Amino acid sequence: MSEEIKAKKKTTVEIVTELALPIAEKLGLDLWDVNYVKEGTEWYLRIFIDKVSGVDINDCVDMTHKINPILDEVDPIKGEYTLEVSSPGINRKLTKKEHFEKFLEAPVRVKLVRPLEDGRREIEGILIDVFDNGDFEVIIEEDTTVTFTKKECSSVILLDDDFDNFSDDEE
Questions:
Q1: Residues 36, 77 contacting (CB under 8 angstroms)
Q2: Least C-beta-crowded within 10 Å: which of 51, 68, 114, 128?
Q3: 31: part of which helix (H) or strand (E)?
Q4: CA 19, CA 64: separation in Å to the nearest integer?
Q5: How far apart are CA 128 and CA 90, in angstroms?
Q6: How far apart are CA 80 and CA 71, in angstroms?
Q7: pTM, two decimal places
Q8: Are 156 and 93 spatial neighbours (Cβ–Cβ below 8 Å)?
Q9: How many Cα neighbours within 13 Å face the side chain of 56?
Q10: What is the pLDDT of residues 134-163, one digit of tens each?
Q11: Which of 121, 57, 107, 117 is nearest to 85 (CA)?
């Protein structure tokens, strides 16, 4: 691992993000997200890529072929893991402020860490605002607006209802 990366004490996700971002840009892709997770006994490094016209298998193969030798050289992960490169999909998770900003006015499903008083753990509505601290607002009924903090949500998922209306905005 390079001395510069070691000195900064970055997480695996931060290191891989820094390595993958310039590669994605050169390939005309957006780096949507990077996850490093353990499922059962296996570790997975997942790199999610996106582009306005949609990601196809060739984009995933190209990204895999470009990032693999760099991951081997820098070696940010000790031990075995499986590398997966894919699109975030239509029902993508919104995890960063930029994701929320891109999909303002889109339908979302908010999954809560703790149930509401009525027992619900999921709420669907329209994303209407995002704040600098990561909190966001959703209209859940005609005139009911709810502000959520990141720590009370296990995930926020874009619903596919109007995906095409948002994915073409940047062309």
A1: yes
A2: 114
A3: strand 30-39
A4: 12
A5: 19
A6: 12
A7: 0.78
A8: yes
A9: 2
A10: 899 999 877 888 899 988 999 999 987 555
A11: 57
